[in-house]
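Hey, resending since the last one bounced:
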Amino acid sequence: MNANTSAESIAHRGSCAAQAELVDRIARLTDGGGDGVHSTVVRPLHLIRMSGPTECSPSVYEPRLCVVAQGRKVVTLSDRTYHYDPLNYLVVSVTLPMIGQIVEATPDKPYLCLRIDIDPAEIARLIVDAGQPLASDTGRESNGVDLGLYAAKVNKTLMDAVLRLMRLLDTPQDLPVLAPMALREIFYRVLMGDLGHRLRALAVTDSRSSRVAKAVAVLRQRYLQPLCIEDLADEVHMSTSSLHHQFKAVTTMSPLQFQKHLRLHEARRLMMVGGIEAVAAAHRVGYESPSQFSREYKRLFGAPPRSEVVLARGAPQG
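The structure tokens again:
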């Protein structure tokens, strides 16, 4: 065995040990709590456990970093599909309505994942404190902005930072001082990693990407209000044509389509969680025509609202 082969073997063993530790820590902290999302005392950090594959589940994803310890999940945005597993992490840098599905999980080897919510303001402060660009612009799309979603390889430095944060959960007395430092290191490693420039661009003040991110935030806050694209463009200091073009590059949708997706996702949540009937949910999110609502709902989710609600309410929970 030569020196290079020996070094690679040691690195591989170290990687396997780190992943095994992450699996053990998430499994232990979620054991007994059932399937689902588990909050932690570190506010941005959540742990996810699922004991089997799931159906496709539409949801609005807020900015987040997801690191899978065990199992595999697929998310779809329009016609683009992303896989993330123990080899890949997922970054959602702007609010996006997507469809997710856990495709690999069993009771003996459940899907285990940690999610860290991203505060763009914190990312911006980190970039300022670093005092220099944190990643190259290689790979940037020709129009100057990138999709607000990407998957990248988990490397050793990122895994080490994630494990340091997870270990802090065993010593609560250290959390007030050390948890913010651990979170900053994790985001620093993401910014320095493959495609990290995408997250950086959305946090840099007055970049084209950050203006689109502001437009996304405005639509997220006011999705029930009538949309005037000219007013939105003025608010984020872009021309109407530029906003439309750049917005689609970041989200895969026009601003009007994005607003429609937000409304349909909210209507679905009202029906599934709130028990509201389809006509009432449609009216609540701004649809005057129940038939138009039903058509657009079926086009997005694959089934008309009434039949999907009946199916969901009749299915076993958990």
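Strands lie at 36-39, 45-50, 57-61, 64-70, 72-77, 80-84, 88-92, 96-104, 111-117, 149-153.

Sorry for the duplicate.
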